[in-house]
């Protein structure tokens, strides 16, 4: 084979590791880590000498302190006796008064004397603190034998012998300091509030007091902590004290807050809207805790009357409607409802499933610059429109009948009705055709749909929408719905979206705030009762798939909702069943002094402040017999004649 050619003989070889990295060396541990594994290393001779020297200094300082304390006590006793004798014989002069004033002032004002200290006292305190900390550290770190202690004590006694001149100088300096501290202690009897202010403002500056605080409160386990951990612990304690003081201050401010003063009847002040809104909040807070915050001169009715007047002024409602709303909602929820009724509900559209799918329609509208989202999980056809660059009633998709502009709450009655294919269904009040076209889409243009309305002008809108949306299984009639049972019967399902006062759709028609009164509500109530009885009579109870009636209104007043259903339960052989809607507020079983049927909780209420849709009421009835009770029929005729006479 021959020897391999070496063409790179003239080139220089690279220094260092080749393609394979060098083998890693064994790890080298620091000496202090090895010592911990083997055991605690014995102290060297030099370290022992350092410890002995430190202990000597410590014992010397303790002995000096004891000597000075004993002599200070003796000097104070002698000076106290001499001061008493002099005070009895000698009157104070002007110069002595000045000297006393200087001693008392210490160069500080009255405001800061409670926490500032002279420099000499601070130094002495710092030295004492350092000695005490050194004592604790040295005692924990070393344990000396009995012989070493005895030798050290003998050396300490020799070192503590001081000259008379040095002792006298130390005594004189500390006597002055003690006198100043005695004067300060007599003058520093301040109140608790000053101490609290000091603790808040000067806690970060007083390092000496921080050290004392740590020494007093730290336990034995704190000695093992690092300095930063000790500072962290001290900081937490400071924050806890600050929080406690802040809570106390807040409570005192709340207690000192002035109570709401009821306005005088004679005062004719013209208040701004902001003042009225503020007074509304105050009155509601008083009514929430009436026993504590009330004015003894005025009753709850006076406060309610004042609140009603302010609400009527601020939100532009008449007295009748505002009184009904105050009876319907709690006060805090009432404000939420009134605020929500001032804001327009989001625009919603319903996809026409006869011509397109919601996914395709959404994509087409997004391509035209429309910002939209699904209306919710409860609906498969609804879309919410947030913003659009073109009018939603003039797009090619709208003109082609791909969608219908319809409120979200208008989808609920048809969903509760749940129409099936090949059924015979009646919409007793169908204009302008939104709900009727929804029924036709769910029926997939099978069966027969009867759309009726009494208004000839409004029925034309039904015809136009049916043509645009492609509804072909419909029969459109224009007659009084109360007379419909005499013309056609035996329907599988009937939808009655009854005419009402419109208190749930104030945003669409703001005239409802001032135009509706008790007579209007009573007129609607009588008409709704008659229409509901006619709708029940049109249904065939023996239907294999149906026998259901859905009653809905765009009103939130119980007079137009629960009262009408309760009346129908008494007059016809029907019962309430579940609407099949997963959300909504249950209907009233008890309303003030009224007691409705126990199954009234199966009905559903929808509010703008809770569900972000127009106020609505939906109830579903099941007819279980075609027989009309005779006694009820006669009474019904008498009541209808009486109501017609009143009107």
Extract low-pLDDT stretches: 92-103, 136-220, 633-647
Per CATH, the superfamily of the domain at 408-646 is: Vaccinia Virus protein VP39
Give the oligomeric state of the chains in this entry, treating copies of one chain as homo and distinct chains as hetero.
single chain
Total helices: the number is 24
Which whole number gives the mean pLDDT? Answer: 78
How many β-strand runs? 15
| CATH T-level fold name of the domain at 408-646 | Rossmann fold
Strand content: 5-15%
CATH C-level name of the domain at 408-646: Alpha Beta
- Termini, distance in Å? 126 Å
Identify the CATH architecture of the domain at 408-646.
Answer: 3-Layer(aba) Sandwich
| Molecular shape | elongated
Structural class by helix and strand composition: alpha/beta
Based on CA atoms alone, the radius of gyration comes out at: 47 Å
Helix percentage range: 40-55%
**Sheet having the most strands:** 9 strands, mixed
């Amino acid at each position: 084979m021959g020897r391999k050619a070496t063409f790179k003989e003239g080139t220089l070889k690279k220094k260092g590791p080749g393609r394979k990295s060098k083998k890693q060396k064994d790890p080298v541990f620091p000496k202090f880590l090895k010592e911990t594994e083997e055991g605690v290393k014995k102290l060297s001779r030099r370290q022992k000498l350092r410890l002995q020297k430190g202990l000597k200094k410590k014992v010397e300082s303790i002995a000096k302190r004891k000597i000075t304390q004993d002599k200070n006590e003796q000097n104070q006793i002698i000076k106290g006796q001499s001061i008493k004798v002099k005070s009895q014989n000698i009157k104070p002069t002007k110069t002595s008064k000045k000297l006393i004033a200087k001693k008392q002032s210490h160069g500080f004002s009255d405001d800061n004397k409670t926490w500032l200290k002279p420099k000499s006292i601070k130094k002495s305190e710092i030295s004492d603190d350092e000695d005490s900390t050194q004592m604790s550290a040295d005692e924990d770190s070393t344990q000396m034998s009995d012989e070493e202690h005895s030798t050290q004590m003998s050396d300490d006694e020799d070192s503590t012998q001081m000259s008379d001149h040095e002792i006298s100088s130390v005594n004189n300096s500390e006597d002055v300091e003690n006198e100043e501290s005695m004067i300060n202690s007599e003058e520093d009897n301040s109140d608790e509030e000053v101490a609290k202010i000091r603790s808040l403002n000067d806690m970060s500056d007083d390092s000496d007091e921080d050290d004392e605080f740590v020494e007093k409160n730290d336990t034995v386990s704190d000695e093992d902590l690092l300095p930063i951990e000790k500072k962290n612990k001290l900081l937490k304690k400071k924050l806890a004290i600050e929080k406690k003081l802040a809570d106390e201050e807040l409570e005192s401010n709340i207690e000192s807050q002035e109570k709401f003063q009821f306005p005088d009847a004679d005062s004719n002040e013209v208040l701004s809207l902001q003042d009225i809104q503020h007074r509304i909040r105050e009155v509601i807070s008083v009514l929430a805790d009436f026993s504590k915050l009330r004015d003894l001169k005025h009753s709850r009715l006076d406060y309610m009357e004042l609140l009603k007047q302010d609400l009527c002024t601020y939100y532009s409602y008449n007295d009748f409607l505002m009184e009904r709303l105050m009876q319907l909602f709690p006060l805090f929820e009432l404000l939420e409802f009134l605020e929500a009724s001032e804001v327009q509900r989001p625009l919603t559209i319903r996809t026409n499933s006869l011509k397109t799918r919601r996914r395709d329609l959404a994509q087409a509208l997004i391509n035209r610059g429309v910002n939209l989202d699904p209306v919710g999980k409860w609906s498969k056809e609804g879309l919410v429109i947030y913003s659009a660059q073109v009018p939603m009633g003039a797009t090619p998709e709208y003109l082609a009948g791909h969608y219908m502009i319809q409120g979200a709450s208008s989808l609920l009655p048809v969903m509760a009705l749940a129409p099936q294919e090949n059924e015979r269904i009646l919409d007793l009040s169908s204009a302008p055709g939104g709900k009727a076209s929804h029924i036709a889409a769910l029926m997939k243009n099978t069966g027969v749909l009867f759309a009726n309305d009494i208004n000839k002008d409004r029925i034309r809108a039904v015809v136009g929408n049916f043509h645009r949306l492609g509804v072909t299984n419909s029969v459109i009639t224009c007659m009084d719905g109360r007379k419909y049972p005499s013309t056609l019967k035996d329907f599988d399902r009937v939808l009655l979206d009854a005419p009402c006062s419109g208190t749930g759709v104030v945003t669409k028609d703001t005239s409802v705030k001032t135009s509706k009164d008790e007579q209007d509500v009573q007129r609607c109530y009588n008409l709704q009762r008659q229409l509901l009885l006619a709708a029940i009579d049109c249904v065939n109870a023996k239907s294999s798939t149906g026998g259901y009636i859905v009653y809905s209104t765009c009103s939130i007043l119980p007079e137009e909702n629960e009262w009408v259903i309760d009346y129908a339960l008494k007059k016809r052989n029907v019962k309430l069943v579940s609407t099949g809607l997963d959300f909504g507020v249950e209907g009233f079983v008890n309303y003030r002094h009224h007691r409705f049927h126990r199954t009234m909780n199966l009905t559903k209420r929808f509010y703008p402040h809770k569900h972000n849709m127009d106020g609505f009421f939906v109830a579903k009835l099941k007819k279980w017999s075609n027989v009309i009770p005779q006694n009820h029929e006669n009474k019904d005729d008498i009541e209808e004649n009486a109501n017609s006479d009143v009107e």
